[in-house]
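To close the section, here is one more complete example, presented without commentary so you can practise reading it yourself. The ligand is PPS.
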Amino acid sequence: MTNAHGGTLVNLYAEGEQLLVEKEQAKSNPSWDLTPRQMFDIELLLNGAFSPLTGYLSKADYESVLESMRLSDGTLWPMPINLDVSEAFAQELNHGDQVTLRDPEGVVIANLTIGDIWTADKEQEALRVFGTTDDSHPGVCTLLNDTQAVYLGGRLVGVTPPLHYDFQQYRKDPKALREHFSEQGLDNVIAFQTRNPIHKAHVIMMKRLMAKHQASLVVHTAVGITKPGDIDHFCRVRCYEKIVDKFPAGSADISLLPLAMRMAGPREALWHAIIRQNYGFSHFIVGRDHAGPGRNNRGGLFYGVTEAQDLVGSLQNELEIQILKAPFLRYVEERGEFCEEHELLSGEAGLYLSGAELKQLLCKGSEIPQWFSYPEVIEELNRTLPPRSKQGFTLFFTGLSGSGKSTLANGVMVKLRERGGRQVSLLDGDKVRKNLSSELTFSVEHRNLNILRIGYVASEITKNGGIAVCAPIAPFAATRNSVRRMVEEVGAYIEIHVSTPIEVCEARDRKGFYAMARAGKIKDFTGVDSPYETPENPHLRIDTSQHSMNDAVDLVIEELLKTGLLGDDT
Ligand code: PPS
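Output:
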């Protein structure tokens, strides 16, 4: 299908007879359960948002994309899109085999006919796509830690479109949005990509571009995976609903893009533009530090603020969609208006609040300045984002057996309850092993599974505003990091290393396990014949042989007060 904007649109869904054949084949194919990230990718592959892709990239296309942001036939396409699967699953697969891809409930989404199978060089991919292997970059972190080792390329045939229950009135696939634009006679429509709430400066910036290009506007918001810690899309969409009437009647709309962002800056901006072209937009706004992941470990930006605008702008002649550079507006108090940098008079500084600064104000429960946003938007943000002192968090104690972590965790829990006003749950190592992980051994694999279970429960408690106090041994750094990432998607994660030396733990030997381990009666005992990887960067280290338990509890509470999570201090 073609229309005025966007070129040929791929549609990978089977219909009629072919659909019946695909459903039949799915019954005997090996199955792969798609992860949330893979669900977003496949939705956009199948509905043509990723046109001209007809499936996951072949190895040649993948390498070409990394090298030159183009498929091997020269077509612009900056982002590797592959199905990553485990080595164990890949072992059974060969070129030409079919795999059925299912959603987490087992519904058949698509059949994949495998073209290429290969083990990805992830460090190389990170360098090419993100320009760094620094895993404080969220895209790099996902790639290096969560993406499976083996990549599949191949052709997809869609069976069932992924289902969404939320905001259905705003969910239009590329075909539906193109048809909508045609029916409404909308020739010029600007897409505004965002993963944040919209405030006054954004609205004024968009109005300026709309007037200049005689265009209407769609807030085409990413609602798949965005940057960890972002305000969730439920709240954001409710905020967008409050700003639509700030535009001339009927000129602005909302539409949802189920995109798993990579936060790859310039490359990602180009990808965003191509996707919006596929949705039939005539114009696309590229922002400052577009799809930037924030600051790196040294406090600097990963990409230059105009790098994305420069890259996409330089490729304008290969794009059908017109690229608009977002002007950067500041509020000039003296004049009571927003100005672009070049409009500032000498001596005028202009006010600006970054997304992170806004979040800080909301977390402190501080007032948001009137010049910055609309009261309706602020009210909505306050409704969803309680101040930090009312948000959930996870307090994760890790340390050797006998280090005192259970006693300390219990003491802290009791103190928190004494303060009141918060729901506290204790996930102690022994108790979890009895109730949640009774079938698990102390092998590396089972320990990791045990800790991930604790992390899952802790993140659920945290998400719902509770305090999860965890006290397992958790000997492996990578697993602790997985828990941290899981929790940080929904709240704060505080790690406390109970660093009591092994000699002291062994001398205490309350349960007699050290003696049994030394005598070879227990195998894989942490610190004896199984390793403990010392946390590199915990919030606090407490050696319980150097402090009374009362003091140790106080140290933890003091640390929590410093973070603002208990409300009395910041
Ligand atoms: S892990 O590694 O985090 O999964 O361990 P965890 O679930 O916290 O262990 C809970 C308690 O199991 C007892 N125990 C052992 N610990 C370590 N290694 C071996 N092989 C082992 N076998 C039994 C031990 O008493 C742990 O409790 P704590 O409170 O740490 O002493």
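Once you have examined the tokens, check your reading against these statements. The longest strand covers residues 108-119. The domain at 168-330 is CATH 3.40.50.620 (Rossmann fold).
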